[in-house]
Write a structure and sequence with these properties.
- This protein is mainly β.
- 2% of the residues lie in helices and 50% in strands.
- It has 1 helix and 19 strands.
- The strands form 5 sheets. The protein has a 5-stranded antiparallel sheet, with no helix packed on it. Strands 3-4-5-6 form a 4-stranded antiparallel sheet, with no helix packed on it. A 4-stranded antiparallel sheet has the order 7-8-9-10, with no helix packed on it.
- The protein starts with a strand and ends in a 14-residue tail after the last strand.
């Protein structure tokens, strides 16, 4: 049985949607007119947030869907799965725009974290000890960060999009993402290890994370 609770506001009771025999809900993203729910069988359901009625359903990943994010502008949805793939979707039609397969490079590591920058154009994708940065519009390349000292446990862009923090077991790494020239590369500017000890800190030129989808 799958269960999903939706709260309307402070102190309110949830509206619960139950699916008999359904897979676990492992990822969520608000999309135009509904709530996208990623499930353990690799599928995405778009639900009416008031009634729980299924508006559409798509099978995306060969294994479980583990993470999902919508860009702040409501244009795209990005999913990641146990099959090592990240899938970029149109948030309105759920048409598949781009699939990124990291499984060969990570030897089968799951994609457990994805994130959009506040501008809605840059993304970060994490699998195992590696992170990929890219821009949605304007090209086809991704920039790889890492390997990090341990498995990545979370991603967060700075409010201005100029840096991305990468949480890992035992520490945090911060990478710049600003654009100055097409030849600049992301650089680790700060690393904090367990017990609050600081690692390497150095001044660098802000790089550009190259785009991965030409539009």
């Amino acid at each position: 049985m799958g269960l999903l609770d939706v709260f309307k506001g402070k102190g309110s009771s949830p509206v619960s949607f139950v699916r008999e025999g359904g897979e676990a809900a492992l990822g969520l993203a608000w999309v135009g007119g509904g709530l996208a729910v990623g499930r353990g069988d690799g599928s995405v359901e778009v639900l009416d947030a008031k009634t729980g009625e299924t508006k559409r359903s798509e099978l995306l990943h060969e294994d479980g869907l583990l993470t999902m994010a919508a860009d702040p502008l409501g244009t795209f949805v990005l999913t990641g799965g146990a099959d090592g793939k990240a899938i970029l979707l149109d948030a309105t039609t759920f048409q598949r725009i781009k699939t990124i397969d990291t499984s060969a490079e990570t030897k089968g590591a799951w994609i457990e974290h994805v994130a959009f920058a506040p501008d809605g154009n840059r993304v970060a994708i994490a699998a195992g000890k590696l992170v990929w940065l890219g821009q949605i519009r304007g090209g086809t390349d991704l920039t790889k960060l890492g390997p990090h000292a341990s498995t990545v446990g979370g991603l967060s862009f700075r409010a201005d999009g100029g840096a991305v923090a990468v949480a890992r077991y035992g520490g945090v790494d911060v990478w710049t993402t600003d654009a100055r020239s097409k030849d600049d590369r992301p650089s680790r500017v700060h690393a904090a290890n367990q017990a609050g000890r600081e690692g390497e800190r150095r001044e660098v030129c802000s790089p550009r994370s190259p785009p991965f989808l030409h539009r």
